[in-house]
Amino acid sequence: MKDYKALIQQYELDVYPRRDVVLVKGKDSRVWDDQGKEYIDLASGISVANVGHCNEKVVEAISKQAGTLITCANTFYNDAKAIFLEKLFSVAPKNLTRAFLTNSGTEAVEAAIKFARSNTKKTKFISAMKGFHGRTYGALSATYKKEYRDIFEPLVPGFSFVPYNNFEKLAEAADDQTAGIILELVQGEGGINIGQKEYFQQVRELCNEKGIMLIIDEIQTGFCRTGTMFAIEQYGIEADMMTVAKSIAGGFPMGALLCSDKIQIEKGKHGSTFGGNPLACAAGTASIDYMIDNKLWKQAEAKGKYFKEKLSAHQLSKVREIRVIGLMIGIELKDKSQPVIVELLEKGILSLPAGTTVLRLLPPLTISYEDLDKAVAVLAEVLA
Ligand SMILES: Cc1ncc(COP(=O)(O)O)c(C=O)c1O
């Protein structure tokens, strides 16, 4: 057997902090390494495998499309794309009416920044401390963490950061040059910080008053993760633009920027070779169909509640707080999360960090109650 770890260490640029495991197979909420060891996946490729690993409907759709038409330039119409767009807008917030299709989350954010600037003729943006929006230059400029930004500066000018869930500070930062406000409804990477409804309603009003585009980033929260198809449904507001990606296509790389009628863009001013390609669209249609057919948002809500109840019943001396919305779980620890993540891995559980002290759990929404029970038992042992 080849030494996969050594090959990756030799040939791939070393940008990712890695766990000591080579994953080779996945099914539903389980994954396997190259030694045949089985794991319960509470990471889902960072909220990508919402419909489970190798979901049968998604596998079938990709296989069928791969034998029909893999690529199609965006200058031609395409059946898979038409069907996908109709499906996407059958579940999207009703005020969002058109999409720009991308291959990733950061590209969707990038498009939102460009469209906010071109539509408002203004250049400034406000985003939140601890917010994460991606790694390309525009998205990185809206991303807070200094370690992600420092060696790449200067970034795009005009971006500023305000404390999350603090309307006064945000209102103070907004001026007549502000083109857009970019926010997550639940900060994922920043520590599973849940946005307050009243805060977002005030932000919406401010945007209306000042002609600012409200850009809601649902890249991590979208597609049933928080207990509704999109988290925005729980906030009683409308976004001018909304970014989605990650779980949109069952694990196939895809993203989208959903726009309200306010957003207009001239032909030829933006584009992508692969964005909305037939394979991604076929996977996306199958994935959204599966979510609808299985009411996946309801499963997320019920399983998140169940998990919190079960875990909270244990004595967890390492834990400060458990924050849960749907199946988006943040366990705030009293100390660093890294040793806990390593111990969980040894015991057959994949988990994620969010900042230095938060353990982030984003299981496939299809996870069985049996696997949740097993995961809780291991977590209780490790966090005791
Ligand atoms: C909220 C949010 N926005 C943007 C991104 C960037 O998405 P991608 O990694 O697909 O570029 C992420 C990825 O983790 C995210 O969680």
How is this structure best described in words?
The chain has 384 residues and is an alpha/beta fold. It has 2 domains: 4-54 and 296-383, Alpha-Beta Complex (Aspartate Aminotransferase, domain 1), CATH 3.90.1150; 57-293, Type I PLP-dependent aspartate aminotransferase-like (Major domain) (Aspartate Aminotransferase, domain 2, 3-Layer(aba) Sandwich), CATH 3.40.640. It has 13 helices and 17 strands. The protein has helices at 4-11, 44-47, 56-66, 79-91, 105-120, 137-141, 146-149, 167-173, 197-210, 278-293, 296-312, 338-346, 369-383, and strands spanning 23-27, 30-33, 38-41, 96-102, 124-128, 159-162, 178-184, 186-187, 193-194, 213-217, 241-244, 255-260, 319-325, 328-333, 349-350, 352-354, 358-361. A 7-stranded mixed beta sheet has the order 4-12-11-10-7-5-6, sandwiched between helices. A 4-stranded mixed beta sheet has the order 1-2-3-15. A 4-stranded antiparallel beta sheet has the order 13-14-17-16, covered by helices on one side. Helix 3 runs antiparallel to helix 10, helix 4 packs parallel to helix 10 (278-293) and helix 11 runs parallel beside helix 13 (369-383). The protein starts with a helix and ends with a helix. The chain binds pyridoxal-5'-phosphate (PLP). Pyridoxal-5'-phosphate is lined by residues 46, 104-106, 109, 132-134, 184, 188-189, 217, 219-220, 245.
What is the structure about, briefly put?
This protein is α/β, with parallel strands linked by helices. 36% of the residues lie in helices and 20% in strands.
Tell me the layout of helices and strands.
Layout: H1 4-11, E1 23-27, E2 30-33, E3 38-41, H2 44-47, H3 56-66, H4 79-91, E4 96-102, H5 105-120, E5 124-128, H6 137-141, H7 146-149, E6 159-162, H8 167-173, E7 178-184, E8 186-187, E9 193-194, H9 197-210, E10 213-217, E11 241-244, E12 255-260, H10 278-293, H11 296-312, E13 319-325, E14 328-333, H12 338-346, E15 349-350, E16 352-354, E17 358-361, H13 369-383
Parallel strand pairs: 3-15, 5-6, 5-7, 7-10, 10-11
Antiparallel strand pairs: 1-2, 2-3, 4-12, 8-9, 11-12, 13-14, 14-17, 16-17
This protein binds pyridoxal-5'-phosphate.
